[in-house]
């Protein structure tokens, strides 16, 4: 039994792997929003790049690579759950609200909120346990930022 437990601990994900998974999950949600209106707007891309750099402390090159990986993940995704589930486990309620605020910033970067972007952000908020009033507060905070 001790050997079995040692094998489990040896194969459990490392902190670095978990951080990379969270980074990819958040970045992929951002890419979903960025591409939701079927127009790859430079303002939305630059906002996504800036948020990823700021949120994860990455260089511009690292953030660009993260967006590339996230774009691949988004293109191969079957649903949002695979990206929202890790956030529930890793982030506090306030951190999840902050993610919604950042998704709003991306949607607003081109000075137009597409209804599909809003619907997507609403769905993400529901999946990560952000209540409707927090969703609205995040939208207002993003607008004033």
Q: What does this entry look like structurally?
A:
This protein has 145 residues and is mainly α. The protein has one domain: TerB-like (Orthogonal Bundle). It contains 8 helices and no strands. Helix 2 runs antiparallel to helix 7, helix 3 runs antiparallel to helix 6 and helix 6 packs antiparallel against helix 7. The longest helix is centred in the N-terminal third of the chain and has 21 residues. About 10% of the residues have low confidence.
Give the secondary structure arrangement, pairings included.
Layout: H1 2-11, H2 15-35, H3 42-56, H4 60-75, H5 81-90, H6 93-108, H7 115-127, H8 132-144
Helix pairs in contact: 2-3, 2-4, 2-5, 2-6, 2-7, 3-4, 3-6, 6-7, 6-8
SSE pattern? HHHHHHHH
Task: Characterize the largest beta sheet: strand count, sense, and whether it forms a barrel.
Answer: none
Task: Report how far the terminal alpha carbons are from each other.
Answer: 55 Å
Quickly give the CATH architecture: Orthogonal Bundle
Radius of gyration: 16 Å
Low-confidence stretches: 4-18
Q: Can you tell me the number of structural domains?
A: 1
């Amino acid at each position: 039994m001790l050997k079995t437990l040692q094998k489990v601990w040896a194969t459990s994900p490392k902190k670095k792997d978990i951080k990379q998974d969270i980074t990819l999950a958040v970045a992929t949600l951002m890419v979903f929003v960025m591409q939701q209106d079927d127009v790859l707007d430079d303002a939305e891309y630059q906002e996504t790049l800036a948020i990823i750099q700021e949120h994860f402390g990455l260089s511009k090159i690292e953030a660009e690579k993260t967006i590339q990986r996230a774009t691949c993940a988004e293109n191969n995704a079957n649903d949002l759950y695979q990206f929202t589930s890790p956030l529930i486990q890793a982030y506090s309620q306030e951190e999840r609200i902050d993610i919604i605020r950042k998704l709003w910033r991306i949607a607003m970067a081109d000075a137009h909120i597409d209804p599909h972007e809003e619907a997507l952000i609403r769905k993400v908020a529901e999946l990560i346990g952000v209540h409707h009033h927090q969703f609205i507060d995040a939208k207002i905070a993003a607008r004033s930022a």
